[in-house]
Each structure stands twice: as structure tokens, then as C-alpha cells.
Amino acid sequence: MRSLCINKEKSECEVKKDLNLLLDISNELSASEINLDNVIKLLQKQLKADVIIIYVLNRKKEMIFVEGSYGLKEKDISDITYKTGEGVIGNVIKNGNTVIVPCISECREFTNKIGMPLKINNLDVSFLCIPLIEKNEVIGAVSIHKVYHGVPNFSDNMQLLSIAGSMIARAVRRRQRELETIEELQEENSKLKEAITLRSFPNVIGNSGKLQEVFSLVQSVAPTHATVLIRGESGVGKELIADAIHYNSKRSNKPFVKVNCAALPDNLIESELFGYEKGAFTGAMSQRIGRFEAADGGTIFLDEFGDIPLSTQVKLLRVLQQKEIERIGGNVPIKVDVRIICATNKNLEQMIRENKFREDLYYRINVFPIYIPALRERLHDIPTLIDHFIEKYNKENNGNIKRITASAIDTLMVYHWPGNIRELENCIERCCILSTDGVIKTHNLPPTIQNAVCSETVTKGTLESILDKLEKQILQDTLLETKGNITKAALSLGITERMMGLRIKKYDINPKRFKP
User: Fold this and answer.
1) Which tens digits make up the pLDDT trace of 473-492?
2) Which pTM does this prediction carry?
3) d(CA 142, CA 239)
4) DSSP string for 367-411
5) Mean pLDDT lowest for which of 196-205, 301-310, 403-412, 491-500?
6) Coil, helix or strand at residue 479
7) Rounded CA separation 92/154 (Å)
8) What is the pLDDT of residues 249-282, one digit of tens each?
9) Of 93, 88, 54, whose CA–CA distance to 71 is shortest?
10) What is the CA radius of gyration of the chain?
């Protein structure tokens, strides 16, 4: 009888503690600034838990983040995330069900990302988790890890945890909205940075994905002193990228010297790059500094780098390795602080195999390669480039071109552009000159760009008749080339002499007409 009374008194005492806890939590949540860490500490004290964690669901990313905890170091939880449905936590938030794991060491679904010991002093660690629900929507979860010293009282702990969870759900909802708003702001900030990046390179027009990758690389390498190798086809704008690198670097107010290596004769390129002393050779009437000395403190841009002769490549190695040069006819090394940017449309790897380019120099300049995509790889930039060139030539020629027709744009979009942006610019300049009514139409385009539809030269007839006409024309052209020699013509076309004879008979071609 007495024992029952004692247990009854103890139970009433626990109930009183629980009520006091809920009152304290209510006061914390009513404060002007809610501190969930204080709520977690109150729960831990009452539940005597080893670890307590509050999780928040990011609805946009469908990822679960740790918002607050007790019993863990800050560095241990900073990178802990769960996908919706991942592990026990992910399933609680996905399904909205409470979970009790009496022994985490025996639960396969328990991912244990926090690194909780599976046993403490040879005692089982239990795990309790409840979803946080606000207006019938799961917004997070609360979990505890606890070693029960005696008979586990899961039901009492779960009841108290559920009541406390319903109280803190509103605060977690507020935090959820804050996190999602912060993420939206970060995305907007990222877009603004991209826009600023575009404005940083005003001469480089386009916003395609591949060009954005180039902008990102330029933005990364520009502030450094690294050697850059710009690669791409002729006419893609390698020089503009070199400009962007220099003028966004710490050397932007220092000299920027450009050298077209292909335009310099082999016997003059060394004197142009390194300079010469008075009397070094016939005609050297006075000392002259080279391009490297002129660029001291700044940047030198070596365009068409693949055309540099092998004899000069050896001297460039010394500049790259030791940052010093020697003028022709001189024997005193001159220190130079120059950043080197190279550009080429040549296949340097193939040139190395053919012994036309030094392998050691290749590895010296290939520190930070940037590949500029061809225009056919960034077709979505064509309309933007067209607008830019129309505006440019309106200003230069005092023109009044207002627009370009959709059919003309479609024609430009399907062309393969072997000359890249330079060819497109020339094409638009021609169109601006030819247009008489302020509108660029398809017939204003160069004949080489116009397709059969826009030039009204579509071949009429069935597929068989069109192919027959084409085959007959090819046969006649080949016979003309071989001066009526059927054997040579068949060999040139990759067919037998008999097949050649049958086709000549089919199309009623007289080979004698093509003999001289």
C-alpha cells in the first residue's frame, strides 16, 4: 500500500516537472527573439537525453538540414544533410510517422551521419524521432539519442516530445521560410554576379552556356599571374578574351603588348620579341628594346603562337622559366616581369608529333588552357551578335537598319560558319549596305549562305530524278577532269570500269567530247 503511494507521488512529481518544462518552452517561444538552442537545452534536461537534434526541411531542394542540436560539436553538424526519404530521418519527414529504434546498432536503416557511438558503456543507444507538423504539412523533425539506465520509458518520452514538438513547429516553420528566402537571395545574387561578369567583358557578346563557362574561367584566372593558352578556330574572338583577362587583372593599368607571331618573318621575330644591341647585325644603328621589355610589369599577348619558329621557341623557354631575356648581340640577362597570354588555332599536339613544336614549351604555356567554342557550337548567340553588329554599323555608316526578318535569322542559324564570328560580322556589314528599306531580308545575305529555299533554287522532281541528274553531272565532271579517260574516271570515283561504262550508256554520255 505504501509502495503504491510512493509511486503515485513520484508520478505526480514527474507530471509537475513536465508541466513546468512546457511552461518554460512556451515562454521561450513567446520571446521577441526565439532561440531554439534554449528550447533544446530545456528538453535535454527533462528527458536526460545524450543528443537532441532539430531538423528543418528545405522544400525547394527537398533536403533536410540540422537547425539546432545538443551533445554535438558545431563542426560535426555543419555539413550534415539528408535527402527526403533517406534513412530514418528522411522517412520520418517524408511519411510524417513517429519512429522508435530501441537499439541503433541493430537498425540497418539508421545512417548515423552524426557518428553517434552504437553503444555507451556496453549499454544500447535508443533513438526516438517525431515529425514537426504545421498546418498538416511536415516541416521538420526532432530526434533524441538516449541510453536508458533501466527499463526504457519510450511512451512517456514520446508523449512529452510530441507535445513539445507541436509547440516549436511554428518557430521551425519561420526558420524554414527564412532559409528558403536566403537561398532565393543567394540564387538572385549569383545571377547578378553573372550579369556583372558579362559587363566585365563588354566586347565579348553572347550568353550561351558554353560562353558562360569561358567567362567563369576568365574570371578565375584574370586576378592571377598564370600563363594562359587560348585555343579555338580562327575568328572566334581569342584576342577579345585576352583583352578581358588583362583588363580584369591586377596589371590592367600596366602595358598590354600584342604580337602577331604569324605576321613577323622568321629572321625578324627574335629582334621584335627580345630587342637588339647597337651593331648586333647590319642595319642595327642603335639599341632597341623588344616587346617583352616594353611589356615589363604588364602583359604580352602572343597571337598565332603556333607559328613561332623552333629557334625562337628555345629562347621563349628561358623567359618562361627564369623571367629574363637577352637582347640580340647582348650578353647581359635582363629581368622582365611579364604575364604571357598565348593564342593559337593550330593543333599543337599534332605539331609536337611532327617535331614542329617543342614539347617542353607546350607544357610551359599550357598552364591554364581556355577553349573558345566555334560559332556553330553556340548558335543561340547568333541573334544577340546580329543585333550588336547592326547597331555597330548603324553608327559607323550612319545607317537606319531597324530589324532582320525571321527567315533571314533562320538561314543564318543553319549555316555552319567556317569563318566564325568574323564571317558573321562581314555578312551583317554587307547586309546593312544592301538593305534599302531598313530591314535585312534573306536575299540580302551572301549567295554562299543562302539555302535552296530562300534563293528559290530548290531542285524540282522526284528523288530518283534528282539523284540521276546529280550522278550524271558527277560523271561528266570526272570525265572532264580525266580528259575522257574512262579507266581513270572509274578509278577516281571508286567504281569498276564496267560500272562506269553502264552509267555512261544509261545517261547517254559521249566520252569523246571530253578528250582534247
Assistant:
1) 888 888 888 888 999 999 99
2) 0.53
3) 58
4) TEEEEPPPGGG-GGGHHHHHHHHHHHHHHHHT----EE-HHHHHH
5) 196-205
6) helix
7) 17
8) 999 899 999 999 988 888 888 888 988 888 877 7
9) 54
10) 38
